[in-house]
Amino acid sequence: MRVFALVAATITTGLTSGLFYTYASLTPGLRNADGLAVVQAMQRLNVAVPNGWYLLGFVGTLVFTGVAVVLHLPSEGHRVLPAAVGALVCYTGSLVATRAVNLPLSQALAQAGEPGLAGYPVPSDPPALSGARRARWSAARALLSTAALGFLCWALVMHCYSGPN
User: Fold this and answer.
1) 36: nearest Cα among 122, 160, 136
2) Which of 62, 131, 132, 152 is the most exposed place for a label (fewest CB within 10 A)?
């Protein structure tokens, strides 16, 4: 069960890390777009992203990493435990960033209404987007989830070198 939990945590963390990396890498390209295009693009992303695949990685990472930590609490799993805990801490940090910054910005964009409708204000710099702020926190999520992935890879290495448990 320990190796299954580590492998599942590593795979789901890789999925989530890849999503955060892609998001952090692509959104700076919107900085030079006009306000309407930015709002439209971000609103479409915010609707498309929360799907079953996203939830598998997003929730699966937390669940499988937590299970891996618990399964490695007994003394024969202690060699892997620091790396598993490091992964859980880093991934939890990315969740905190998501909840504290990215979700409120996405909700503000959703409440902005439908771009292109009569009376819709076309902002030159949509305050809900907060370009630099969103970019910083998206990069932080990408770095934290990538660090979690690195910790889980190290946990797998440590598991292999600690012999069968």
Assistant:
1) 122
2) 132
